[in-house]
# Entry
Amino acid sequence: MKITGIITAIFLALGPASISADTLKLLTWKGYAPKPLVDKFEEQTGIKVELTYSNNEEMIAKLRATRGSGFDLAQPSQDRISSVQAKYNIYQPMDYSRIKTDQIVASMLKAVQNNTEVNGESYAAPFCYGTSGLVVNKRFAPNANDYDALMDTNYKGRISYRLKRPTLIALAFAKGDDPFAKYANEAAYSDLMEGIGDDLINAKHLVKNYWANGDALLELMRNNEVHVAMAWDNGGWKLHEQNPDIDFVAPKSGALGWIDTFAIPSKAKNVDAAYQWINFMLEPENAAYFTNQEKYGTASKGADQFLDPTIAGNFSRSFTQADIDNINWYPPVPARLESIEGKILDKVKAAN
Amino acid sequence: MINKGQLTLYIFLAPVLLWLLLLIVIPHIDLFIISLQIEDDMGDMVWSLDNYRAFFDEQIYWLTFVRTAIYAILTTILTFLITFPVAFYITKVMSFKYSGFFTILLLVPFWVSEMVRIYGWMILLRESGVFNHFLLQIGLIEVPIEMLYNDISMVMGLVYTSMLFMVVPLMSSLEGLDDSLIEAAYDLGASKLVIFSKIVIPYILPGITSGAIVVFMLTLGNYLTPNLMGGKNSLWFTEQIYNQFIASFNWNQGAAFGFLLLVLSTLIIWLGLKLTRQNLSKALA
# Structure
């Protein structure tokens, strides 16, 4: 009896505390919730933030497995929302009246609303944006200016990229094709990607490794183990601060532009906290802190005045006006393309 | 009427049975049902064996499985070869005073997670890592060598992560081996090789079998080590399951792969037991 009593007492002591505490469960990318901002938010609102780091594919899989519960807020890319939502119904419509839309860049908000629309409702608000392109060590690879550098024998053993869909898409652009235009035509898209897959297999001996963890890639580049990589612009700019030889290069055939968003899972428990977090993160000062720290572009309208001068410098160094016009923004991905790409990527990884 | 003893038994058994039922049996049934369905062109779920057929039709899938299985068997053999001398030395040669200390030494690395140990190896082996630095310093090599991202480093990582699971059963069966048997064999003029093959090995065979089963299964189901240390050529079957679930959103195919992994690995172990004339109950006793 005594033991039962003790156990009951423990449950009574722990139970209510863990249930009643106000928490925000955030499913996000690494770096999207810097510690000082989390502390500030917790202090301002009294809401505890629980972070889970993930990527687009895992976010979708996690929410699909729980049918949209377990998290209060997720941060998928805008192109990965509409088809997933139509099929699995894992998000709830965004109530834009609860977001301070005047602190968001209007054109970006509109683009995200359009791209995440399913049956007349939109499902996301923009948070940050950036591009994928090349991160190059110019001391060793001064001429790498397009994605085909990833298959260039001059850089044998010094090349790294992710074995994920952006790599396939980038190489398709480098070949002069337009994969986004073929999104609607499954057969044509499949043919195009098969071709890219063969190219990747032929050039496989040139690759040092397929990176999966951004920090690990930066480490490889810092140690001069990798000279040419396909990666996000912010990584290149972070490295540039430490080693001026390394920088982000907007590829000739166009950097790939993405926008990451806020989307609320359909069975979120603490929707209030989710909206509070969205508004908090887009406050100009906080958004600027995030951008200064992580180098991603922000969707917050007034953030410019708080940005470090180096941020603007990064952008103008890597992008001419022509490069900006040339950015290929991801349109929403139709269902079923992922399984075509998945099989090709498996083949590349298995090839010798 | 259930008597009191039986009631106590059931009460203590209930958590185990519930665990088995709720967390192992039911999810597997669900997984099995999923694996028998595919999405047709209209986006509806229909019954089909296509997921299983895909495994045998697509060369890449079964080749990956064969590769994974061969490497798992190789890892098991290497693990035995490396850990047997260690286990023998600690239990039979070393004085009792130190053997406890050395056993603890074997255990210490396993107090940190597999992830940390693998990253430790990566720091040692990478091109700008500790080994290369050392070799450059003493002038053995002139340019750093990449020691990571190949099959050898991957197998080494796998052996390292599974050593403990071989050494413990080996030590416990060696401890049961009476030293006087070895001494008697020496008295009767047997050579070391004969003692080893006619006395030691047959005696500890159940220990070897249980260690081998555990190491084989752990290696076959490993995800982290092949992925981090193997690098670009190391498509492991578990990774293929992950890819089906996560990257392709094809849970049905992933579930079928999961089942095939279960069935095929069971088959390999069954074959192994038959070939060595062991049986499972003796190995696990």
